User: Fold these one by one.
Assistant:
Number 1:
Amino acid sequence: MSGENGCWSAGSVWRGAPLLSARLKLRPLVAADAPRLAELANDWEVVQYTANIPHPYGLDDGHAFVVAQEARRLTGLGVALGLERTIDGALIGCIGFGLDHADSPELGYWLGHPYWGQGYVSEALRRLIRHLFADLGYESLWAAVHPDNQVSAHVLEKVGFTPAGRHPCGMPARGDSVDSPKFALAADQWRAAHAARPMLLVAAAALIDTDGRVLMASRPPGKSMSGLWEFPGGKIHPGETPEMALVRELAEELGLDVGESCLAPLAFASHDYDTFHLLMPLYAVRQWKGEPQPREGQMLKWVRAAALSGLPMPPADIPLVALLREWL
Ligand SMILES: Nc1nc2c([nH]c(=O)n2[C@@H]2O[C@H](COP(=O)(O)OP(=O)(O)OP(=O)(O)O)[C@@H](O)[C@H]2O)c(=O)[nH]1
């Protein structure tokens, strides 16, 4: 079988494949995004340090951007992706790369003002960087930031970039040009850091009631991926088996008394989050004592198998839902 096909090769953003991170879908822009682009980008604070985004920014600019980016993707000049939040489907900004100045991709991004300070840019950058190195095989990446944009410089350093001199940056939309600090990241550096991320062991349960519905819990406020719907469970502590951990978690989180012998291994998730690798066995549970209570600030709901895929979930859970639907 050819290595170009099927499961042998990851979907490529050059071909319009989306990328999932913990809280975001990085996906191609479509014409229907133009009004939202106009709403977010018509903000001087958002665009002041960008080279090509006009100000003010209207609906026509949004449409023109979507069309131009599609043409760039099809001609191999670069890719722009919308940042769509999993929790509500809202477009909150853009990230992308271009090959205009070199063979190595230059990264760029912007984020709507209401979404600043919540780690979305670093999350999107980490996901795109992994795709460019691990799936597309680039050897190095770079980015240039406006000399006054210290926040952006800090984000680049946070995800592994290091200073790499200066880059003369034309800024056509500002009628200006600046001598920008340049940052670079090599594939070897990234591989070493990526290999060192921890493996997280978590045990989770699909509690199934007599109607065949599954109990889903929302991740509580303040936790990572808060608001997304997940299978109840939690981290396996040192010295615990997955079953011991799950019995403990179901008691702590839901006030349920579950015997280890009521846990039937069903499937597992092995998912590469950008800051850790998740290994999570999922057990089917049909018998327990007590009524599930939300003891940790979470919301609970019983969901029919057919409706599970409509819930916003952590990306690790998506393959589990497909398996569970077949199994139920
Ligand atoms: N329980 C559970 N965790 C999941 C699921 N999917 C998924 O990606 N995870 C991830 O697995 C990890 C579980 O951590 P957690 O914070 O819920 O664990 P915990 O209850 O022991 O929390 P704590 O250590 O903050 O008290 C999180 O990174 C979470 O996002 C799922 O369906 N159920």
Number 2:
Amino acid sequence: MPKVLKSAVPVEQVAARRTDVAERVRAIIADIRERGDAAVRDYSAKFDSWSPESFRLSPEQVDQIVARVPAQVLEDIRFVQDQVRTFARHQRDSLREFEVETLPGVHLGQKHVPVAAAGAYVPGGRYPLTASAHMTIVTAKVAGVPRVAACTPPIRGEVPDATVAAMHLAGADEIYLLGGVQAVAALAVGTETIGRVDLIAGPGNAYVAEAKRQLFGEVGIDLFAGPTEVLVVADQTADPFVVAVDLLSQAEHGPDSPAVLITTSEAVAREVLDHVEALLPGMPTRDFAEPAWRDHGEIHVVDSLDEAFALADTYASEHVQVLTAEPRQALEKMRDYGALFLGPGTCVSFGDKVIGTNHVLPTRGAARYTGGLWVGKYLKTVTYQEVTNSESSVRLGEVCGRAARVELFEGHARSGDVRAAGFRRGELSWNPA
Ligand SMILES: NC(=O)c1ccc[n+]([C@@H]2O[C@H](COP(=O)([O-])OP(=O)(O)OC[C@H]3O[C@@H](n4cnc5c(N)ncnc54)[C@H](O)[C@@H]3O)[C@@H](O)[C@H]2O)c1
Ligand SMILES: N[C@H](CO)Cc1c[nH]c[nH+]1
Ligand SMILES: [Zn+2]
């Protein structure tokens, strides 16, 4: 019989917190629309103790910051950016542009055009999320975005040196030390000093994710990528200590980060619970991990792996770590997740920091309808058409006239009529004299 060994806080409590966040974000966006840069400055001072002369870093400031970063850190940034770039290039090369002739002289085509300007949000209010610079900016540049305006918040008034270095090395065209709703809103609506962009990509806390959600439409967004989530599917072969470490590795992101275990082994579940309790007090980030585990930690014991995968799908979790004897089964059995981590040889932290797949992933159920950030999110898949055969123009014009009139669209019908009649009588041609 399925059993719940640990459950999370009731959904109503979570919903109430979300409503509160949504209202605050709405008020900040409205204020920035009205007062522009002055409001941006006020919120940056309030939330991040940061109110410089200019939020944009000059090339000289960037050079000074990069010079402060230890050589090993820069080498690691370059290594990881190479991994991210390699994977992103494969994604780009997998995209097909084509033109097909569907009727004589009827040419239909598809192209992928990068957005002209993208905002790359690199989070970091609580701790530096340097790796998000690789994920957002390198990927945008592989997609061919000409203007990438990248924002990251200072951390309690301090410049995140490694993150700025990563933004620079990734190829950002503009770097702003600005975070939160104020950064997202400025990029979306444009202020005197920050030019508006066409699309904003990147992860963030509940405020950042909600700001992107509210501004969607006025600006494009990559996906809903809010507070981190992890779900582990484990059988009796899993090492309970590894499971506990992996759950806490993501719970440390913040007090609103869910960590869920679904296992077929009650013995593993009980050991995991003990390890988590033992590990938590020694975690330097326990201020985030403890409330996350207390309020959003769950342990479910189920009867079979099929049941485990089916239950896991209902969470549509951002990350799913599979620690079972045959982890690749998950590729067939699961549908709803941001990314899968198969077997004990890899982990969510590899995806977060080093391996090369993109760590900007859907949260709060968005994995039901989207995958994570990738080259394609910066591209617009557009179509075009051309007809170079008069008989086809006549035929399409006649069908168009009839089809449009069924829907009472007389204006549309006439566009079809003039082509049908014009090409039939030879009054229309491709090279008019
Ligand atoms: N889903 C993903 O792909 C993914 C990837 C990486 C990180 N994340 C998430 O990103 C988040 C990073 O969080 P963070 O806080 O360190 O950085 P952040 O950059 O997302 O947010 C920092 C900003 O939050 C704003 N803020 C803080 N308190 C506020 C309040 N009370 N009202 C309004 N605005 C407020 C501040 O303006 C600050 O600049 C974590 O939740 C992490 O889980 C998600
Ligand atoms: N786990 C985060 C995605 O939700 C990504 C990340 C970056 N650094 C640490 N973690
Ligand atoms: Zn992480």
